[in-house]
What we know:
alpha+beta, two-stranded antiparallel sheet, 176 residues, six-stranded antiparallel sheet, Alpha-Beta Plaits
Amino acid sequence: MATVSLYLCLGSNLGDRKDNIMRAIRLLEKGLGSSVASLSPIVETEPWGYESPNRYLNACALFRISGKEPFEDHCMQILSLCKETENALGRVQRHPGEGYSDRPIDIDILFYGTKKMDTPSLTIPHPRIAVREFVMVPLRKIARGSVRKAFPEIFRRPSAAENGPAKAGKIEVDKI
């Protein structure tokens, strides 16, 4: 069984945001049977896609996990684990089309190795990585060469935070 690089983005804008992210990571480590191989610095941003006075903390995590075939089924299992983790930390799942809202935790699958999939419930790589500074800034800190080479269209352009103010608002980096 091959080892796969699984990249996740975690965000929180309710409660003890940093603790929510760390608790989610511990639950994911248990569920994945793997410790975090690399964890980015935390970035703080304004909400993306909606208005709220509650700022987000976001981080990206790299897990090295045992890949399973068919990989699409494994990705769906990982998605279920992410949703279970969100629910355990108090997130209320919304119906598609209801828009974004404040949440104690949000977990997105960014990459599963260099694989691609597109289903109604999951697209990998995540379709909005490149336009979300709150993802790109921490992701660039931990992304390995294989994922950068496989998806140059995502990593090609420098992030706005690296070239001035980000559209999402001021980004402040705080190491965990």
